[in-house]
Amino acid sequence: MTNRVLIAQFMHETNTFSKLPTTLEDYRRQRLVEGAAIVPAFTGTRNELGGFIDAAQTHGWEPVWGVAANTTPSGRLTKEAWEHIRDLILDAARKTGEVDAVCLSLHGAMVSETEDDAEGALLEALRGVVGPDVPVVATLDLHANATARMARHANALVSYRTYPHVDGYERAVQAAQLVEDALQGRKNPRCLLVQPAMLKGADHGRTTQPGIMRDLLARAEEFERQPGLNVVSIQVGFTWSDIPWAGPSIAVSHEPGAEDSAAATAEALIAEMWARRNEFSSSYRSIDEAVAAARRGGDRPLVLAEGTDNPGGGGYNDAPNLLRALLDAGIVTVAVGTIYDPGTVRQALKAGVGARIEVTLGGHTDPSLGAPVQATAEVRHLSDGNFRNDGPMNAGVRVALGATAVLRLGDGIDVITTSTRMHTIDLQVFLSQGIDPLGRNVLVVKSSQHFRAAFEPIAREVMLVDAGGLCSTDASRFTYAKLRRPIWPLDPVEDPLAG
Ligand SMILES: [Zn+2]
After folding, report:
1. Nearest C-alpha neighbor of 214 from the set 142, 146, 286, 156
2. What is the Å distance from ligand 1's center to 321 Cα?
3. pTM score, whole prediction
4. Whole-angstrom Cα distance, residue 421 to residue 340?
5. Ligand 1: distance of its center to the CA of 162 in Å?
6. CA 322 to ligand 1 center in whole angstroms
7. How far is ligand 1, taken at its centre, from the CA of residue 141, in Å?
8. CB 226 within 8 Å of CB 179
9. CA-CA distance, 235 to 253, in Å (whole number)?
10. pLDDT tens, position by position, for the chain (499 residues)?
């Protein structure tokens, strides 16, 4: 008998401190693919859906296609966006009559206007439709704020093991294999989740160099080889979320009878995370240090990563302070990817390529973080902003920046000005706009870590810059009302598992 397996993706990393709500229109603009249209959109990609598509073929499943939905991190999902996409998944499960299993691609840090634990609510609702015995697995981002409710209603939570996240495909294949084992009666998985009194940990999950996260992952893979344990997932959490469950967690999918071993595994990993909680590999530099490095020049680009304005973490993508400093310092052969400013893009579209216009660029979303840059700009290039990633992360996936203008400021600062907020993870952000990144002295990217996969290989130097965006790494700058307390590093904590 052919097994019918519901496959769907519903992702969002919600920064509850952002003033920008996440709307259904945001999903429609970036990714909202329904039903069987998922197949041509994601076949051959390294996305989780590419993995599920291949796994369905490998295992001879009859896929039931739900929806593929993802959009750039920002504030809480509107009630409309949350309910509409949730219901597309629930309806797919209901209409089919009966599904034999469910494979979901989630983020794990989604918050809506009505649900602080959106993935937990989705999994619970789905469990209500499919019943207690149908295997349900979900892949998660390693920055998930995973909850016991998610674990209760899933048979496994399978998180990325790379940051930059380049293993979405592999995690989906792993999750699907567990589903197949369960369908064939070889496994009977259930999921345990343990969360310490920590708001952050494990160097925010960075795996680009030796350190705490790589050590934890190596131990997790060893634990996975123990009898009775299926999947050991480490989530480092997403700090910019005022919900009770923000922070790291360990999820262990195990067989019946292996509860003690699963709990001991989670506690051992948390003990190491706690003991090494002060290990950080990234340090932010000031705007002055960035400008000084730009002045030194070199034969390959200096990559300045504005991590605190990273739209991949909910930043507004329009922080203007670094751009202003480079302009004032007279630095040339610079390319900035990107500044979100749909109003200025419209102005450029109206004026046309070659026109000179007076712009008020960036800094519109929250001028308290930096006022817009006032300058004369030449319109160098106009496009619809569509391209496909061809770097290591999300290779093959289509990206829509919306209407996009390249504006030249000063003597040679080209600013890719977009109509959609999007983190810079792929060289195509520049190449698709007629800019060869290798030919530039300085590249500014709006990203805190994901850019490394594509940009480190071409950089003479990489520098993380704090130019005053929303995503400050100093948690004490934010006011948390719903977060569980006490929690490290905001409060004194002696034993992170005491709660
Ligand atoms: Zn992440």
Report:
1. 142
2. 25
3. 0.92
4. 6
5. 9
6. 24
7. 5
8. no
9. 14
10. 799 999 999 999 999 999 999 999 999 999 999 999 999 999 999 999 999 999 999 999 999 999 999 999 999 999 999 999 999 999 999 988 799 999 999 999 999 999 999 999 999 999 999 999 999 999 999 999 999 999 999 999 999 999 999 999 999 999 999 999 999 999 999 999 999 999 999 999 999 889 999 999 999 999 999 999 999 999 999 999 999 999 999 999 999 999 999 999 999 999 999 999 999 887 899 999 999 999 998 999 999 999 999 999 999 999 999 999 999 999 999 999 999 999 999 999 999 999 999 999 999 999 999 999 999 999 999 999 999 999 988 889 999 999 999 999 999 999 999 999 999 999 999 999 999 999 999 999 999 999 999 999 999 999 999 998 999 888 888 999 999 999 999 999 999 998 6
Residue 354 burial class via C-beta count within 10 angstroms: exposed 0-12, middle 13-18, buried 19 and up: exposed
Type of residue found at 231? V
Q: How far is the CA of 105 from the centre of ligand 1 (A)?
A: 13
Assign a CATH topology to domain 4-275: Rossmann fold (3.40.50)
Distance, in Å, from the CA atom of 147 to the CA atom of 111, rounded to the nearest integer, reads 12
CA distances 199 to 111, 143, 196, 213, 278, Å, are 17, 11, 9, 16, 12
Closest CA to 415 of 449, 454, 388, 442: 442
Least Cα distance to 462 among 447, 479, 477, 474 occurs for 447
Domain layout of the chain by residue ranges: 4-275, 287-472
